[in-house]
Amino acid sequence: MRLLPCSFQFLHLLILVRLLSSGSGAGGAAVDHPSFIYDGFSGHNLIMDGQASVVDGLLRLTNDLPNSKGHSFYPYPLNFTDASNGSSLTSFSTTFIFSIMGPYTDLSTHGLTFVLCSTKDFSDALPSQYLGLLNSTNDGNATKHLLAIELDTIMSTEFNDIDSNHIGIDINSLHSVASSTAGYYTSAGGYLPLSLNSGQPMQVWVDYDSKQTMVNVTIAPFNQSKPSRPLLTQVYDLSTILPTTPVFAGFSSATGTLRSRHYILGWSFRLNGEAAALDYSALSLKTIQDLAAQIGAPPSMRINRTILFAALVSTLGVAIVVSATLFKIHRKRRLEARRNEIEWEREYGPPSFTYKDLCAATGGFKDKMLLGKGGFGSVFKGLLPHSKQTVAIKRISPESKQGMKEFMAEIIILGRLRHRNLVQLLGYCRHKQQLLLVYDYMPHGSLDFHLHIQGHSSTGLCWSQRFHILKCIASGIFYLHEECEQVVIHRDIKTSNVLLDSEMNARLGDFGLARSHDHGADAHTTHVAGTWGYIAPELARLGKATKATDVFALGVLMMEVACGKRPIWVNNHGEPLALGDWVLKEWQGGSITNAVDPRLDDHVEEEIELVLKLGLLCSHPLPNARPSMRLVMQYLQRDAHLPSELGPNSLLNIGLVQDQMLDQHAMSCPATVITDLSKGR
Question: Quick one: what percent of the chain has pLDDT higher than 70?
Fold first, then answer.
């Protein structure tokens, strides 16, 4: 650590003596107007807890453990009293270099923060989206006296519905008062984005002007000069939240389900002045590159050994250089593949199945074993060679980035769910570029097949089977919404994702688009996902998936089961019709049961009427008008009666409202994950 100016060395010694004599910590004496620099952290005294440690001169805040946190603080409380006005907060300036590295460049975990606060005790804080700073009970509590500059690499569904790669200014809460996608402005006035999770070291500057009560946050790649235009500028009087003394300065970091490592390479701080520049020569480039190789950062972070090698052996000829280069690339890829496999196994446990066994189970994934295809891959029937168990094996397309996210969502969400009306995930296999998921085999296939593909066959579903299936589906969704440890929003409820076991019990499957969040919190999503015909109006317009959007899809599915028609179908005149519009029109015409599937000759009139009316109520255009899944279950079990005021006039214009919102969405919201009605994913 360097103290600036040099004459402060003696002053710092006196301060240390004073601190030793009077005690330290929140109740100890605060250091007056310090300026300190850490050009690396070897041998320096820091207050650390959690996963924080100093490794090879680098301050490592987290260390590859999921759902962990780490903190590191300057060891002495600081005196933020303005010398010109003893009751005011002084200006300050700080700069630091950080690096966030994880095993994947397109998937990450939560980030790190620079912190000023009245305490260095964060024992009650939570990891994950709380970044090791707060918890669900004290987020937003003004008594926390906390300023945090967050560098977040994952979108928190509870706090920030913005880019998952962003920088924010947080005041006593993780709801940022100002935030922006990570990037910087060039001297020519252009803007260049940055990927915080790229593994590349980057430098951040945080400046507070007490006279203008203005906070500026600036970021740029490592070893570049400070941009003249800040990324974030926020007017905020910090004297209203920070005490003048004592104040602790430091860093906090946290991980979630995925792991990553968060490093601070150097740190400079100054009260009432500009933080001194860091000594880049002391921050060894070799240390940074070794760190990148250790974590598995992108190839752009590593030394271009091919070029160096070519320069050294150019006299040996182009052929030797090319041969050596190809050998090294092949070896590097093998090492990276093995490293990624090890990292993956640490995160999710060892694969449950070998690729060899799954390949043998499907006869080499032959077409005769194919059960179906979708946008993210194919599903095969398989017979496991050792247990002789029949299973369904989903092979994710290696070309699909969305497929990787679906693969992880299935493992993270479905892997921890257990319910008789959910398809059971038996395990997974990850072999090179092959991603495979193994499920219980459902011998009767999908509900979609029985309703629409099998057609008028004599083996079609009778009404008692259909009504039982609807109650099974509702039971599964009720479990997801109300009985799980976290709320699970399925986001793709449709007949092709409902599978039938040997006893014709329905099980909801395909959790690749599912999202989870804590009970009592809102789920915020920024992309529309699902299948046309099942998408709620507010989801198409705002991209916000909730319990109510799942209920909407269930309502459409109910009418589909009772009517035997797809959510969007073409009448005899070649006109496309929404199923809800048609059912409502039949109800207005005198009898809602006129919409019943003509193949059903054994239906119970009261049950058919209940299903069709409940389907219309669940698919109401207003989310608040839709019943909860608990109430849906009560209706289906006849433990409660539908509202007496429910009638066709109270449900008018459902189709018109929905169509208008879908049209508006199609023009204004291109970022979607939507599938065709006639295909599975």
Answer: 75
